[in-house]
Design brief:
Layout lengths: L14 H22 L5 H4 L1 E8 L5 H9 L6 E4 L7 E7 L5 H18 L5 E9 L1 H30 L2 H24 L6 H31 L5 H11 L1 H21 L5 H36 L2 H6 L1
Antiparallel strand pairs: 1-3, 1-4, 2-3
Helix pairs in contact: 1-6, 3-4, 5-6, 5-7, 6-7, 6-10, 7-8, 7-10, 8-10, 9-10
């Protein structure tokens, strides 16, 4: 199925401008992370998280007053949907073991029942993560991400017969992760296991998109070795453009619906996917492909004049 008939856009001609946009987004995100830090979910920061549902819309100040009597430093958040009558209560870990965290969670529920009786708690869900577990989860999340990137670098380098292809794809993925993570922090979303899962999904999604274009480049090079690589790559991007629009567009609409209708629990995951699909599709064309072109240009300049003339 083709959405565009014989497209002939000069994608690589806009590389320098869009590279500047990418650098600006990365620098902004890294600077924001350096100055404001990353908001980790309870899985990575250790502590107690309680989602309490009330009969009517709760008064946040009254809920905070009830919680403060038994747990210092708690943060109280409401949900966007007022019909849910829910609040998120999070208490960071201070000292003690898992037993202390369990006792603290029980004390919070009891305090809400006693001090906020006029709006009874109908039900609540509690998540408790100790410091040892949170550090273990954080360590494993980092290792899995690094291993995934290294594995894909080796796979693409082996598949396309050169390290430059794998390097280009890996740089594009780092670009995607940095921009997406920066926007997650800027828009005050927490880094949770769901968000890590979304980031890893996007790594695979971005690489798959890159492989499709690189495959077309490889096929075209068999017939057009005498042509400039930049033209071959630009034509290859145009030839796969309909496929890119269909696959990225349908996935984007799906995760956008998840973001709008999926509820607060999935909001961070859906936001990560929405941003990641946009950035991942863009990076395949404007990051991965230009790196291969630049490397080819550099390699040709390093050859002796006689060898260059023979090409």
């Amino acid at each position: 199925m083709e959405i565009l008939k014989n497209p002939n856009y000069d994608f690589l001609g806009k590389t320098k401008f869009l590279l500047g946009v990418s650098l600006a987004l990365i620098v902004t995100g890294v600077a924001y992370i350096a100055t404001h830090g990353v908001r980790y979910g309870v899985e990575f920061s250790a502590g107690t998280q309680i989602i309490a549902r009330f009969q009517t819309r709760p008064d946040v100040d009254k809920v905070r007053s009830a919680v403060d009597k038994v747990a210092a430093g708690a943060t109280i958040q409401t949900y966007d949907d007022p019909s849910k009558n829910q609040v998120l209560i999070r208490v960071p870990h201070t000292a003690g073991g898992d037993a202390d965290l369990s006792a603290e969670a029980q004390a919070i529920r009891q305090s809400l029942a006693t001090n906020y009786a006029q709006n009874a708690v109908l039900e609540s869900s509690t998540e408790i993560v100790g410091p040892t577990v949170s550090q273990d989860l954080k360590s494993k999340a980092i290792k899995i991400t690094i291993f995934g990137l290294l594995f894909q670098l080796v796979y693409i380098a082996f598949r396309f017969g050169g390290a430059v292809w794998g390097t280009a794809a890996t740089v594009a993925v780092f670009h995607d992760v940095l921009i997406t993570l920066g926007l997650i922090v800027i828009f005050h979303y927490e880094v949770t296991l769901n968000v890590i899962a979304a980031l890893l999904t996007l790594v695979g999604y971005s690489q798959n998109d890159t492989i499709v274009i690189f495959d077309r480049v490889r096929e075209n090079l068999k017939q057009r070795r005498k042509e400039p690589l930049a033209k071959v790559i630009n034509d290859s991007v145009n030839q796969t453009l309909s496929r890119t629009i269909i696959s990225s567009g349908t996935t984007f609409l799906t995760v956008l619906a998840l973001y709008v209708f999926g509820g607060e629990v999935l909001r961070g995951f859906a936001f990560t996917m929405v941003i990641g699909i946009i950035v991942g599709t863009y990076s395949t064309i404007y990051i991965a492909a230009p790196i291969v072109v630049w490397w080819d240009s550099y390699r040709r300049k390093q050859r002796p004049p006689a060898a260059r003339a023979a090409l």
